[in-house]
Amino acid sequence: MQLWEMDIPQPKEGEVRVHLEAIGVNFIDIYHRTGLYALELPFTPGMEGAGEVDSLGPGVKEFAENDRVGFAMCPGAYAEYVIVPVKKLIPLPGGVSFMQASAILLQGMTVHYLTHGLYKVKAGDKVLIHAAAGGVGRLLVQACKHFGAFVIGTVSSEEKAEIAMEAGATEIIDYTKKDFHEEVKRITRNQGVSVVYDSVGKSTFERSLECLRPRGILVLFGQSSGPVPSFNLSLLARGSLFLTRPSLAHYTATREELLERAGEVFEWVQTGILKIRMDQTFPLQNAQDAHYRLEGRASAGKILLLP
């Protein structure tokens, strides 16, 4: 990645220009940079940010200049200014700062659809959450605990175990010391869990399947260890298991759904259901360092870029 000086972009019909105050760093940015999710080169990374409306394209009536806004799943955020389609733009409540919005929108809406839209977590459910101290993982722990689930989290260090426990995990497994599959069997008395939330991918996939109870669901929503290789679908037959590879874009496909999810996430933040943990902020020009930290799994919370 290199820092470039470019002309300030101009919004077209149905678009606004946002002067960014904070930018969220997410694993999808790394997938784009490495080509795992291929984009046409060159491109500006970044899918999440918040700031003030700076300029309106023709015909835009829903927003005005200086409105406080945020967005997620809209490319080009590693910049001082970004063009955002009106349909992707989210107004910020008065009590939510730019940094909070950039830290919670993409990951918070991911947690919302994972626990509401894809599988509705309920009291008594046993759930397994990989990378439980990471950005999405820690929020998932909090949400599932709030809904009354028995939460098992995997981590890679004592420090991260403390973070996951603080977030509300019932049981913690350090996967560098113990086999998480064997531990899940022990904890659940061989019954298995209702759902596995797996953002790791290649290195956890097969054992995640083995952690499920009959008719359980494996939610593969990331691949920080690499993409899952081809596998025999008959593996699902051993417990009539379900497997899904979802995307936030498909769960915010309409403006109504986007605003509903974002609105509830902001409510969760303001009422304390979700507590944001900031890991580190970097100047925009040091975006490479932010990627090294996230990609190296050194972070415990949200990483932001500040223009």
What is the element layout, followed by pairings?
Blueprint lengths: L14 E11 L1 H8 L13 E9 L11 E5 L8 E5 L4 E2 L6 H21 L7 E4 L5 H12 L3 E6 L2 H10 L3 E4 L5 H8 L5 E6 L6 H6 L1 E9 L21 E3 L10 H17 L6 E6 L3 H9 L6 E5 L1
Parallel strand pairs: 6-7, 6-9, 7-8, 9-10, 10-11, 12-13
Antiparallel strand pairs: 1-2, 1-4, 1-13, 2-3, 3-5
Helix pairs in contact: 2-3, 2-7
Describe this structure in words.
This protein has eight helices and 13 strands. The chain is of the alpha/beta class and 307 residues long. The chain has two domains: 145 residues, Quinone Oxidoreductase, Chain A, domain 1; 123 residues, 3-Layer(aba) Sandwich (Rossmann fold), CATH 3.40.50.720. Helix 2 crosses helix 3 and helix 2 packs across helix 7. The longest helix has 21 residues. The mean pLDDT is 95.
Question: Which short descriptors sum up this protein?
Answer:
307 residues; alpha/beta; Quinone Oxidoreductase, Chain A, domain 1; Rossmann fold; 2 domains; 7-stranded mixed sheet; 6-stranded parallel sheet; 8 helices; 13 strands; globular
Give a quick summary of the entry:
This protein has helices at 27-34, 98-118, 135-146, 158-167, 180-187, 205-210, 255-271, 287-295; strands at residues 15-25, 48-56, 68-72, 81-85, 90-91, 126-129, 150-155, 171-174, 193-198, 212-220, 242-244, 278-283, 302-306.
